[in-house]
Write a structure and sequence with these properties.
With 601 residues, the chain is α+β, with helices and mostly antiparallel strands. It is built from 20 helices and 23 strands.
Length: 601
């Protein structure tokens, strides 16, 4: 029995020994299969990706930014271009804390820079390209030459060229031209698909933003082979950047300069000059203003940003496209509402008095006595309040709103930079019933006092200078509502058609035209006359500031009369004294320049 049990155990042992080679073979085959599978995966399936990663370890693509297209005025004069600037950089991976002091002192002595400032810049972190730190900007040519002469001994430092946007006229037309700024990280996530780089700059406002795709161009680059230390071994290829396209604007540099100079002594305001037949903007000025070159700086401190963006004067706000009480310039709209409603036809004559009572308030005429029995033309000539109170209240808010709609108010004008526009307000019963934008619905009903105020462009009416220029273009061109625009090429905006016929009776149009002409020939706008001024029509305006500030001054005019070739709207913000005293001389300066350049060409 014992021998039998031993024999059984020997058999089991022999069987186990015979299975060991099979197990080992299986393990070897499994390991070999895994290795082969891994090699296939690395070489075949992922080979392309890993070859690319290997190349990236030894090949560096140095991007070359494109030169942005220039902005030109209608005569080809440069309003915005690009300039080269040289900057000093250090690569942190090549310069450790131990070697930095020696490099810093050598750079400071060689380039006449402040060592403490270099320390501060180095501590600010890498630039947007992710691998270097900007130590100094706007190096002078002699500094660049000195660096190049000693560059072999300045390991880790480099001087590179940057292309920055440049506005040769400084603040001129700043709100219109706009500016460029570096793209944000969130923007880069979307724009990378369109060829943008993290170092890219993008048009932020104005024409720069509206025509970004036309102006920007395409990046190029230089392919270099580098060693483990980042030193260049050889040049592998070059792809030149593609410059952006130039853009010719409708702006006239001479008129823009005249507009800016006319605003110089005003606390704030705007001037719009426009071709009433095409909608081409000839000048678009706003004050306070800013220098768009500020945004082209490679390094800007938070203090500098705060000084601009937190400025209580709001220099970044375009007054040309912000809404204000229009005052008596609105009376032409009220006249249109009265005639088109049929309640006050063109031959209407009304008795004007010292004041007319609506609700619990007596609304006065500005001369304190009225102007007797007069019609539309003389009512515009004298700017009679009591005449237009009667027309506005009698026609009603719906008629006024209809006329305002026909003239392009209560909506954006269609200009390319329209995202900055305020659509304004023309109040009516429905607006009041909805709470006027601040109260509970139904708590602020429309009252006669509202209608009286609306009739002369006060309180419940706010419009932009650009909207007013568009409306007066209808009177100047014979009944067409045009789309204001800043360029005739490279358009990336659509609002067809560019001209729409306004539903206005010829007798209404002729009556308003006659009145606007009388304003200039013998009324409140008489000061426009003089040498170098063609026959013109226009309307002065003085408006109370509904926000509580001093009065605004307005003047809207077009020339030659009756078929205008230019419309000018001048607005002096919080400048008490009247439209004929402050706004009219502003428009006159622009008109003189326009007429002189027109006759010379």
């Amino acid at each position: 029995m014992a021998r039998s049990g031993l024999s059984q155990r020997d058999g089991q042992r022999q069987s186990g020994l015979r299975q060991q080679p099979l197990v080992l073979l299986t393990l070897v085959l499994l390991v070999t299969a895994a290795m082969v599978s891994r090699l296939v995966w690395l070489q075949v399936l992922e080979g392309k990706r890993y070859r690319q990663l290997a190349d990236e370890n030894r090949i560096r693509l140095v991007p070359r930014s494109p030169t942005r297209g220039r902005l030109l005025d209608r005569k080809g004069r440069v309003l915005a271009s690009s300039k080269l600037t040289y900057s000093l950089y250090v690569e942190p991976r090549l310069v450790d804390d131990a070697s930095w002091p020696d490099l810093r002192d050598r750079l400071a002595q060689l380039l006449d820079l402040d060592a403490a400032e270099l320390d501060q810049r180095r501590g600010s972190g890498v630039a947007r390209d992710g691998y270097r730190i900007n130590l100094a900007t706007d190096l002078k040519p002699e500094q660049v030459l000195r660096f190049q002469e000693q560059s072999l001994g300045l390991k880790g430092a480099q001087v590179d060229v940057d292309i920055l946007r440049y506005y040769p006229h400084g603040t001129l037309a700043a709100h219109t031209l706009g500016y460029t700024q570096p793209i944000t990280e969130s923007e880069y996530e979307t724009l990378a698909e369109k060829g943008y780089k993290i170092r890219d700059r993008i048009g932020r406002i104005g024409v720069e933003a509206a025509y970004e795709s036309h102006l920007r161009g395409a990046w190029g680059g230089q392919m270099l082979e580098v060693n483990a230390m980042g030193e260049v071994q050889r040049h592998l290829g070059d792809r030149p950047s593609v410059a952006g396209k130039d853009l010719t604007l409708t702006l006239d540099l001479d008129l823009q300069k005249a507009a800016e100079q006319a605003l110089a002594d005003k606390p704030g305001g705007a001037i719009v000059a426009m071709d009433p037949n095409t909608g081409a903007i000839l000048a678009l000025a706003s004050k306070p203003t800013f220098d768009p070159n500020f945004f082209s700086k490679l390094v800007t401190t938070q203090t500098e940003y705060d000084a601009l963006f937190s400025n209580p004067k709001k220099p970044l706000l375009s007054r040309a496209m912000n809404a204000y009480d229009p005052g008596s310039t609105w009376k032409a709209v009220t006249a249109m509402a009265g005639m088109e409603s049929g309640k006050f036809p063109p031959d209407t004559k009304l008795n004007t008095t010292a004041c007319i009572t609506y609700g619990g308030h007596c609304f006065p005429d500005h001369n304190g006595a009225g102007f007797g029995l007069i019609g539309y033309a003389d009512a515009l000539r004298f700017s009679s309040n009591t005449f237009f109170y009667q027309v506005g209240v009698g026609a009603g808010s719906l008629a006024l709103k209809k006329a305002a709609d026909a003239l392009g108010f209560q909506r954006k004008t269609g200009i390319e930079i329209g995202w900055e526009e305020n659509i304004g307000l023309v109040g009516d019963e429905a607006w009041a019933a909805s709470g006027r934008g601040w109260a509970e619905p139904g708590s602020t009903p429309w009252i006669p006092e509202d209608m009286a105020s609306a009739s002369i462009g006060q309180s419940v009416v706010q419009i932009t200078p650009l909207q007013l220029a568009r409306a007066y273009s209808v009177f100047a061109n014979g009944g067409w509502l045009v789309t204001p625009h800043l360029a005739d090429q490279g358009l990336n905006w659509t609002e067809p058609p560019r001209r729409t016929k306004v539903l206005i009776q010829p007798t209404t149009l002729n009556t308003i035209r006659e009145g606007l002409r009388k304003v200039v020939s013998e009324g409140t706008g008489f000061g426009l006359n003089g040498p170098g001024i063609p026959s013109a029509g226009g309307k002065t305006g003085t408006a109370e500031d509904s926000t509580g500030g001093p009065d605004h001054a307005w003047f809207a005019t077009y020339a030659p009369y009756p078929e205008g070739q230019i419309v000018i709207v001048a607005f002096a913000q919080n400048t008490p004294g009247g439209g004929s005293v402050h706004a009219l001389p502003m428009a006159k300066k622009v008109m003189e320049v326009w007429n002189r350049t027109r006759t010379q060409s």
